[in-house]
């Protein structure tokens, strides 16, 4: 069974379905791989003022973040499928009443994972009934298919 990293790497390296990596850092561009065509630069540009940038060493295109929605819609129309690789952070939800509880009965959405453990400072307590924290950034991949 492949790890998430290996699965995403395999998807990025395949050549039949377009892939876009949503990069979120300041000044970063999204990275795109699409099946080869001599018209790829013009297709990506789509009559805009700016040019997409070809990164020969990485064998992919870079496009501005503002082009994301248009790229997804046009890629689905042209190819029928598209992979989107993007960062995400899983949100955990609990409650101070659960984290500070005594005994074993838990009816919280954490299913007892945080029951009686206290708040180690990583939780943001919104109210007596709600606390949340965000896990470390990970990468997720989803396949979109044209309807």
Unreliable segments of 5+ consecutive residues: none
CATH class of the largest domain: Alpha Beta
CATH fold name of the largest domain: Translation Initiation Factor Eif1
Shape category = elongated
Overall helicity:
10-25%
Q: Can you summarize the main beta sheet?
A: 6 strands, mixed
The amount of beta strand, in percent, is 25-35%
Q: Give the termini separation.
A: 30 Å
Neighbour order of strands in the largest sheet: 3-4-2-1-5-9
Explain this structure to me?
With 147 residues, the chain is an alpha+beta fold. It has four helices and nine strands; from the N terminus they run H-E-E-H-E-E-H-E-E-H-E-E-E. A six-stranded mixed beta sheet has the order 3-4-2-1-5-9, sandwiched between helices. It has a three-stranded antiparallel beta sheet with strand order 6-8-7. It starts with a helix and ends with a strand. The mean pLDDT is 88.
In summary, what is this structure?
22% of the residues lie in helices and 29% in strands. The protein is built from 4 helices and 9 strands; from the N terminus they run αββαββαββαβββ.
Tags for this entry?
alpha+beta, 4 helices, 29% strand, Translation Initiation Factor Eif1, 147 residues, 2 domains, elongated
Write the layout of secondary structure elements.
Blueprint: H1 4-13, E1 19-21, E2 30-33, H2 40-45, E3 53-55, E4 60-63, H3 68-79, E5 81-88, E6 91-94, H4 96-99, E7 124-127, E8 130-134, E9 138-145
Parallel strand pairs: 1-5
Antiparallel strand pairs: 1-2, 2-4, 3-4, 5-9, 6-8, 7-8
